[in-house]
Amino acid sequence: MTFRQLFLAGSAALSALLLPSCALETLAPPMGRSGDQLVFSGRTWTVKGGTELFGPGPNYFSKDLYSAYTDSLGYLHLNIRQIDGRWYCSEVISNENLGYGTYTWEVAPNQVDLPVNSVLGLSILFPILGPLGRALGLTEVQVGLFSTGYALMQFLLSPYWGRRSERGRKPVLLVGILGFAASFLLFGVFALLGERGLVPPGLLFFLLLLARLLGGAFSSATLPTAQAYVADVTGRENRTAGMALLGAAFGLAVILGPALGAGLAALFGLLAPVFFSAGIALLNALFVYLVLPESRPRGQEAGARLSPFDPRVFPLLLLGLALNLSSVALEQTIAFYFQDRLLLGGVETAQKVGLALVFYGVVAVFVQGVLVRKTGWPPRVLLSLGLPLGILGFVLLVYAKTFWALALGLALQGVGQGLALPGVTAALSLAVGEGEQGLVAGLNSSAQALGRMLGPIVGTGLYRLAPEGPYVLGASLLLLALLFLPALFRRARL
Q: Could you report the per-residue pLDDT of 250-270, keeping only the tens digit for each?
């Protein structure tokens, strides 16, 4: 992964936990093009086009800006695209006679870059929701319902948006991002009115909850559409790497989002992160509208409905649910666990847990953003490695009695999640046809949202019974998945 890619992915990830929304720039804006002429490697080339059919396909040639172009790094992009039901190839012809000699072309693997404002989301609000709720006179339960309601809407509506995106990815991304921006503006305005005593606490809670429900409804459009977009623009051989980069972006959000939210709140007040999120989302929408090309051109047929019980996807959806449930249960209880195991005070707990979670997040991001993309391992390998490492991480947490043992357990969990989650996402994408990518991405997002809903309830409930309970459950779920992994892949026909 280049520094540029890491920077782009990091900034994208910050948004993801504000939205979570996602818009991907896989095709950079055309550069060096003037009409049917482009500049590459210091020479001028003519882009071939026309209405005649050429063999062996036969195919047409396109002069469309996104069929042949150079990007900001000087790389030449030649794309095969379907436009209005016709397949178009790309060809460039040098305007100069190169003469005799050896000319070497280096072909780079398909890259999926995330733009600076592509995803901004929920984690930036983590540090402020609690104190903001208390400042507004809300109870802890009421504040908790904001997150539960958000995840509930994602669970319910992700399949719908995924199905809708089969008619075109770009419009769904725009609707999702703009709707998210509107929900955050409403949340900020309602909270501001509540701060000034212009809205009674009872009504204020329902207004804020409505804003969060709207946020969940519209943000559920972005992630499945982004996953489908990645599937559209990556070949089957690069599908896993593309999904891994998407996962790395969200991982970076976990690390950086809370710090950004806390910083903005300290400088400008508790509502600053809310309005900042809305502003970033609007910039993101502008980027998508002006720059992002449509990956599913007109003329392509929308896929039929895809049942979550389809044998190709059902086992993988269950696996994704188990991974998310166990991960969220860990995240919700790990601060309590550190405090109780190490007998720490409140401030010291925050410091130790913060350090360990940063370590956890960095490891997961490295695995997804660098290791998985570099190795090109298929889903079967990722899951065969990720599940045992995740189990080992949970087991170590159960028996750990020192800070470094707990941190190592979290790190192993980070490696396991970093391998397994892109493995599930890529496997789901590869298990279905090209016309079902939006459908399966919607189901995947819904399963993940269900895990995020159940995780806090299950995790905290088990912790009350036994502090090790959430981690024993996590190890058990992953062990069960590992035992059934061969059958799972046979069922999914992978």
A: 666 666 666 677 678 778 888
User: What is the pLDDT, as a whole number, of residue 113?
Assistant: 41
Give the number of other CB atoms < 10 A from CB of residue 220: 32
DSSP letter assigned to residue 21: -
Q: Which long-range contacts (CB under 8 A, 24 or more apart) does 93-97 make?
A: 93/45, 93/46, 93/48, 94/43, 94/44, 94/45, 95/37, 95/43, 95/44, 95/45, 95/46, 96/43, 96/44
- Give the Cα separation of 257 and 251 in Å (integer): 10
| Tokens 């943000």, residue located | 219
The two three-digit tokens of residue 19, written as one number: 């939205």
What one-character-per-residue DSSP string does 188-249 give? HHHHHHHHTTSS-HHHHHHHHHHHHHHHHHHHTTHHHHHHHHHHHHS-GGGHHHHHHHHHHH
Q: In the Cβ-directed half-sphere of 328, how many Cα atoms lie within 13 Å?
A: 21
Angstrom distances, CA of residue 286 to CA of 180, 388, 472: 14, 43, 46
Beta bridge partners of 113: 25
* Strand ranges, E, within 35-95: 37-40, 43-47, 60-61, 68-70, 76-78, 81-83, 86-89, 92-94
Question: Span 312-318, mean pLDDT?
Answer: 91
- The upper half-sphere exposure of residue 218, i.e. CA atoms within 13 Å in the direction of its Cβ, equals 23
Closest CA to 281 of 200, 174, 369, 373: 174
Assess contact for 176 and 161: CB atoms under 8 A: yes
pTM of the model: 0.66
Q: Where are the beta strands (DSSP E) in 343-457?
A: none
Average pLDDT over residues 30-37: 64
Percent of the chain scoring above 90 in pLDDT: 22
Q: Give the model's pLDDT for residue 244.
A: 73
Judge residue 53's burial from the number of C-beta atoms within 10 Å of its C-beta, 0-12 exposed, 13-18 middle, 19 or more buried: exposed
CA 286 to CA 118: how far, in whole Å?
A: 10
> What integer pLDDT is reported at residue 24 of this predicted model?
33
Closest by Cα among 295, 288, 304, 242 to 111: 242
Question: Contact at 8 Å (CB) between 274 and 407?
Answer: no
